[in-house]
C-alpha cells in the first residue's frame, strides 16, 4: 500500500513539473516584433532648415541620407513613392528632431531618385529586417507593393494626430483642390479673433481667418494653400510658437 502511494506521489510530481516547465517555456516565447511602417510627407533637407532650427541635425544633400525622429541610427528602411512605384532601400543616417507633420527627412539625392513631387512629397516608409549584406540601393517593387501606387494622387489628407496620416485616394487628385491648416476651434468668436490678431503680429501670416461652423464653434485656420509645400512654411512658423497638434484638410 505504501509502495502504491509512493508511486502515485512520484507520478504527480513528474506531471506537475512537466506542466510548470511547459508554462515557463511558453511564457518565455518572445512576441513577434512589429516593424515600423508609416506614410506621410517627406521633408526634403535644406541647410537653411538647420539654420532656422527646423531640424536639429545636418545631412549632405549629395548623398543618399535620411533622418528619422523614432527609428534608431542604421535601421534599414525602404522608402516608396506611391505615385510612380519607385523605391529606394537605405539606412537611417541620424536620429533627429523635426516637426511632426513630416514622416521623414530625406536628402535632395533621394528626392531626385524617387522623383518626388516637390509640392506634395508623399512617401511610404517601411522598416525592413536586418541582414549582413544590406546596402543602400534602388529596387523594383514586388507585386503586392505595386498596389500602393493606387494611393496617389492624394484625394484627401486628414491629420488629427500628426504622427499618423489618413489617405483616401480612390479618385484622381483634383488639381484645383487646396489645403487648409486648422489652428483650433473656439466656443467664442472673440477668442478666435483675438488669437488670429496675435498670430498675424508674431508670424506675419496674412491668410489667417475665422469661420463660423455653428452657433457654438468658430474655426481659426490658415489658407487655402495650393499645395502641401506652400503650407509647410506656415506650419513651421506656427509650430515654433508651440502649436503642434494642427489639423490639415484638403478642400
Q: Based on helices, strands and strand pairing, what is the structural class?
A: alpha+beta
| Spatial arrangement of strands, main beta sheet | 5-2-6-1-7-3-4-8
Mean pLDDT: 77
Helicity level, as a percent range? 25-40%
C-alpha-based Rg, rounded: 26 Å
Q: What would the CATH topology of the largest domain be? A: Barwin-like endoglucanases
| Structural domain tally | 2
> In the CATH hierarchy, what is the class of the largest domain?
Mainly Beta
Terminal Cα span = 87 Å
Uncertain segments are 140-174
The SSE string, one letter per element, is HEHEEEEEHEEHEEEHEEHE
Shape, per Cα inertia axes:
elongated
Report the count of strand segments.
Answer: 14
> Regarding quaternary structure, how should these chains be classified?
single chain
> Approximately what portion of the residues adopt beta-strand conformation?
25-35%
**CATH homologous superfamily caption of the largest domain:** RlpA-like domain
Largest sheet: 8 strands, mixed
What labels describe this entry?
single chain; 251 residues; alpha+beta; Barwin-like endoglucanases; Alpha-Beta Plaits; 28% helix; elongated
Amino acid at each position: 500500500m505504501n509502495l502504491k502511494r509512493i508511486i502515485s506521489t512520484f507520478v504527480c510530481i513528474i506531471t506537475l513539473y512537466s506542466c510548470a516547465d511547459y508554462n515557463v517555456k511558453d511564457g518565455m516565447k518572445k512576441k513577434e516584433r512589429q516593424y515600423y511602417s508609416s506614410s506621410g510627407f517627406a521633408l526634403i533637407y535644406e541647410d537653411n532648415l538647420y539654420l532656422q532650427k527646423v531640424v536639429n541635425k545636418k545631412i549632405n544633400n549629395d548623398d543618399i541620407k535620411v533622418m528619422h525622429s523614432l527609428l534608431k541610427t542604421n535601421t534599414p528602411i525602404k522608402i516608396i513613392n506611391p505615385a510612380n512605384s519607385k523605391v529606394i532601400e537605405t539606412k537611417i543616417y541620424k536620429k533627429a528632431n523635426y516637426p511632426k507633420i513630416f514622416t521623414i527627412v530625406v536628402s535632395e539625392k533621394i528626392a531626385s531618385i524617387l522623383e518626388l513631387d516637390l509640392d506634395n512629397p508623399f512617401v511610404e516608409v517601411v522598416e525592413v529586417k536586418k541582414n549582413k549584406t544590406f546596402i543602400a540601393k534602388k529596387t523594383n517593387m514586388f507585386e503586392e507593393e505595386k498596389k500602393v501606387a493606387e494611393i496617389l494622387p492624394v484625394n484627401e489628407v486628414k491629420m488629427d494626430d500628426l504622427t499618423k496620416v489618413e489617405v483616401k485616394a480612390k479618385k484622381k487628385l483634383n488639381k484645383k483642390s487646396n489645403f487648409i491648416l486648422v489652428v483650433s476651434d473656439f466656443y467664442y468668436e472673440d477668442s478666435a479673433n483675438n488669437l488670429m490678431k496675435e498670430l498675424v503680429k508674431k508670424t506675419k501670416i496674412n491668410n489667417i481667418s475665422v469661420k463660423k461652423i455653428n452657433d457654438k464653434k468658430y474655426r481659426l485656420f490658415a489658407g487655402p494653400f495650393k499645395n502641401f509645400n506652400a503650407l509647410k512654411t506656415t506650419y513651421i512658423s506656427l509650430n515654433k510658437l508651440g502649436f503642434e497638434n494642427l489639423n490639415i484638410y484638403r478642400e
